[in-house]
Amino acid sequence: MTAKPPRPAPRDAKRILVVDDEARMIGFIRMNLELEGFQVLEASNGLEALEIIRTSLPDLVILDVMMPELDGFETLRILREFSNIPVIMLTAKGEEDDRVYGLELGADDYIAKPFSPRELSSRVRAVLRRVETPASSPEKAVLKIDDRLSIDFNTREVIVAGQRIKLRPTEYRLLYHLVENAGWTVTHEQLLAKVWGYEYRDEAHYVRLYVNYLREKIEEDPSNPKYILTERGVGYRFVDFRSGREDAPTPGKTAD
Fold this sequence. Notes:
This protein is α/β, with parallel strands linked by helices. The chain has two domains: 15-132, 3-Layer(aba) Sandwich (Rossmann fold); 142-238, Arc Repressor Mutant, subunit A (Orthogonal Bundle), CATH 1.10.10. The chain is built from eight helices and twelve strands. The strands form three sheets. A five-stranded parallel beta sheet has the order 2-1-3-4-5, with helices on both faces. Strands 6-7-8-9 form a four-stranded antiparallel beta sheet, with no helix packed on it. Helix 2 runs parallel beside helix 3, helix 6 (169-180) packs across helix 7 and helix 6 (169-180) packs across helix 8.
C-alpha cells in the first residue's frame, strides 16, 4: 500500500503518520485529525512506516501494535535506532503489558482501543506540546550537582562521570521539575500536570516509569538511588544539593 496524499491542510500543519493495517481505523483517525487541522500520512505496516519516516519526516507517529510483517513493537525498536520522533502506540483495551512494554521501548504515550475523537486529539496535542515546549532553562546552562553528575540544560544532556548522555524530551522535563524543586517532595499529581499535562492526572504509572528511566541514566546504582528519592505514597524528591547555598529552593516553588 502506498501512502495516500494528504487532504489540503494549513501550510504549517503538523504532519501525523498513522500506521495501522485496518483501513477503517486509519480512515477514522485521518478524519478526526484533519478536522483538528493536522496533515495525515498513512502506512499499513511497519516497513512502509519506516520508509515514510525517513523520507517525509512527520512530526508524530501513531503506531498500532498488532500488524503483519513487522509489528508495532519491532517497528518502534528499529525507529529508536535512528530517530526520537514522538510515537503514540495503539493498544488493545486492557493490555497493560503492551502499554508498559511500548513505553519501555521508547514510545511517548499510548491510546487504548476503542477511543473517542476527543481523546485522540487530546493525546496528540499533549505529546506535541511536551516535545515542542521544553521546560525553561536556568541562567546557568550547566548545573553541577556533585563531582559525578551535571545537567546541561541547553543540550538536554546529563553529564555522568564525564560522559554525556542525551535525555528524551519527557525525561528532560521530569528531571527539570525535580531539580528545580530540589529538597522538596513533588507529588505524583504535580509531576503529571507539569510534565505530561492535566489530561494525565490519573496516569501515575507514567511518573514511576520515567523516574526509572532517569535513574538508569544518572544513578550509579539505580536500585539504591542517591539523586532521585522516593517518598512512598506521595511522590519523589531530588536530593537537596543546594542546601546552605544562596540559590536554595523556596518551599512550594514549582518550575514553569
